[in-house]
Amino acid sequence: MDERTGFVTQMGMDREAAFDVAADLGFDYVEVMLDGPSAHRNVDPESVRKSAEERDLDLAVHLPFTLDVGSPHDHVREGALRELRAAVEAAAAFGAEKGVVHASSNAWRPAWDGETVRATVVDSLADLDAFAAERGVELCAENVPGGWFSIEEFDRLFAETDVSMTLDTGHARIDGLDSAETAAFVADHADRVSHVHLNDTRQPKDEHLPFGAGTIDFERIFAAFPDDWSGTLSLEVFTLEYEYVETSKAHLDDLL
After folding, report:
1. How many domains, the chain?
2. Which tens digits make up the pLDDT trace of 55-84?
3. Which residue of 60, 120, 127, 250 pairs with 31 in a disulfide if CB–CB is 3.0 to 4.6 A?
4. What CATH number does the domain containing 165 carry?
């Protein structure tokens, strides 16, 4: 693989400190969380761009959470897409190359059928992908467990849109895939998996442990990517202690 590595910022992380750590540890990029205090309306794009450039870092973003792109309610869905477009524009302004978005919906199950919701997710992501592409941002839809749009639904997303994928390894496990099955998914879809969230777990839960502390067989998953795969690998560790990021980076470097 000809991959690049980075990590996802967490709520409570100081962005400048995160950029310093990324540069010191030899990461290629930082995936900036655009939610909460770091939502697009609270971010000065020129400042973010300058900070990254000073440290020779590329940038990606995680677009805001829980915005319902699959809502069957027009005003809810349209509002979610307006907010996501605004975040994409901010990401483009500070030079982010990829934007992660959740392929999911909070539609009420007793009231709506799966086909309606899944078709709406696909249509919304196709529209958002075209919007992002016009601004030089690659949209990467993430598999989110327990919702209307599981990892098994991505075959449809690949067939009907040009959206890239963010494969979250922990989420795949929650949806029932073991390491061998995740590796098989990679082997079948490596041309569409542009970005990976390295979410390590010990069990089918969204643990986001330090990389290597769980039981996912990442060596097997990495081996499923073709030699010329040139995507991005984001450590997604739920911590504010950079020592765990450093330990995760060391383990990742050993595997790669």
Report:
1. 1
2. 999 999 999 999 999 999 999 999 999 999
3. 60
4. 3.20.20.150
